[in-house]
Amino acid sequence: MNTANVSGEMKMQINPNQLVDAAEQILALGLLMTAAHFGGKMSRKIGVGEIVGQIFGGILVGPQLTSMIGISTSLYEKAFGTFHFFTFLFLSLIAFSLGEELHFKKFALVGRKAMGICFVQGLATWVIISAVFRLMGFSTINSLIIGSIGIATAPATIFVLMNKLTIEGKFRELLANIVVLADVAEIFLFAVLIQIAQSNGTQSVPGTANGSWLGPLIIQMSTAIAMGFALFVALKLIIRFKELPAEDPLGTREMKVRNESGLEFISLIFQEHPQVSTDLMIVILALLSISVGISFLYNLPFLLVALIGGIGISNFHSHILFKSLQIDPITRVMNLIFFGLIGASVDLGGFNLDSLKYILAYVVARTISKIVGTWLGARFWVKDPKIISCLPRMLLPQGGVALVEVSYLAMILGAEGQKIFSILLPAIVIFEIGGIIVSENTLKKWKAWTVGEKEALEGDMTLDEPLQLSDLIDVSRIRLDLKVSDKEVLFRLLAKTFAIKGDMVYTDGLFNEVMEREKLLSTAIGFGVALPHCRYGEALSPQIALATIPAGMDFGAHDGYPVKIAIMLVSPEEPPESHLKALALVSRLLMKPDNRNLILELNDPLVLHEKLVNMDLMI
């Protein structure tokens, strides 16, 4: 026997070039994670969210910038190219996770309001953005794809802001439902449009004469749905409920596995219990990766495959699977790498004055369509004027889903995809930063308008600490026997009194704040009394101005009585409790008929001021 030809040893053939490639990949990944991590920390510190910093970190170490300054190599650029698979996996993971929100019972509880508003704003956004880019020379299908991306919001950002400001109640519930529904609908629409574009083979208008694209599209979509169902079945078969001992110090479960044989042994091995764990995350990621890989091989819409699998798990299995995908250390690393890769993919050479006009067009078109569309939907489906005022500005932030999709376009649509990427990436960053600022200010305004206001106006609020009326009123801010019939004239007159003693510098800002609050809902509380009020940045402490209008004026009061006493309250923005206490005190004062009659009877500001100060003892 010739042992020279027998391969008794396992040998690994390593090409020296492969070692160089591996070294470049490890270096690129290390630099990417370092830059993205510290960029995220920096941007989080300045209050714009860590995603923006992670993207800019990726730009700093990406092959585009490093090649421009002459320190990049072809191998370094190639190393980043090997990471692109991560984008597809990350996007499919998002689509799968969104399936959790499409539980049939949960969807039914969302109600017509959220679905109606979501539909109106989504349709308006899609139509307006698509029309703008079609007029600017983009193909129909590319314009529709850009329009669909505009629908996507930033649920994570919105939830963080609402938690930060402790926003609760019907507004939180409505807003949360809308942003999640918008992303689910957008992913489905995006998947269909991408499939149409790929079915055409070019990014041109789908053939409408003979509908040649429709047949293959239906087959592909149907196959994707079947693939998604198969993903669900595979997860359900492997991840099954079973009895587990609370404690197993002797390792009896492992001994049982070793003692089983045949099919029972295999069954125990290929079985996971649905509990939050890294084991569960590994199984989900593994089967999801297999599904996505097969989808790519057969040109199927992989986003739909992942979404259908998620819907199946949400409705017919356990939500614990979704919680296993949210294990913090692992998801943070995945987010870090992904958003860093987006920054590293930026083609800095593609930014020019021509692309600037497209960026501006997207920002303007999306801002207008989101605000107008949401306002129209809210006007039809919601009657609360405060919600109608605030909701349109809450859908401006854009982040995760949209960023994933533009990165995906850059890889599958060639030069056209790269052009769309170079336009939408900076636009989305603008919305990520600007949207957070607008949304946070809107939530602060909502909180100032609503939290405790109803109880305070009705005089039902408990005053934990004594509050003296003498601390609020000054004789210089009392105006008696006014002959006015217009709210704006009255408000401007009272607003100016706050500047007489230097309490604050009068500007139209104070008047505008009071008017904005009044437009939401009349501040008339009945009995011929109105309490226009606001929180104002220049105010140092709660202050009031008082006016009497003997002839009365229409304030839209719920009891129909004309207003004869108007007290304007202006408080600092922080702390909010000071404003509510002052509001409750003044409201409680004016609830007493004797106090109202006394105010109307007197025509000397000095005498009235003295009486008001002495009323502290009667409250």
Estimate percent helicity. Answer: 55-70%
What is the typical, i.e. mean, pLDDT? 78
Low-confidence stretches: 3-8, 202-211, 243-262
In the CATH hierarchy, the third-tier topology of the largest domain is known as Na+/H+ antiporter like fold
What portion of residues belong to β-strands?
A: under 5%
Q: Could you characterize what this model shows?
A:
Helix 10 (214-238) packs across helix 14 (302-316) and helix 17 packs across helix 20 (414-450). This protein folds into three domains: 17-80; 86-206 and 213-242 and 270-449, Up-down Bundle (Na+/H+ antiporter like fold); 453-618, Mannitol-specific EII, Chain A (3-Layer(aba) Sandwich), CATH 3.40.930. It starts with 15 loop residues before the first helix and ends in a 5-residue tail after the last helix. Mean pLDDT is 78; it is low at 3-8, 202-211 and 243-262. It has helices at residues 16-45, 50-61, 63-68, 74-81, 85-98, 104-135, 140-151, 155-164, 170-200, 214-238, 252-259, 262-269, 278-297, 302-316, 320-324, 328-344, 353-381, 385-390, 400-412, 414-450, 453-457, 487-497, 508-520, 576-590, 593-601, 605-614, and strands at 478-479, 524-526, 529-530, 533-535, 543-553, 563-571. It is elongated, with a radius of gyration of 31 Å. Strands 1, 2, 3, 4, 5 and 6 form a six-stranded mixed β-sheet that branches. A hairpin with a 2-residue loop joins strand 2 (524-526) and strand 3. With 619 residues, the chain is mostly helical.
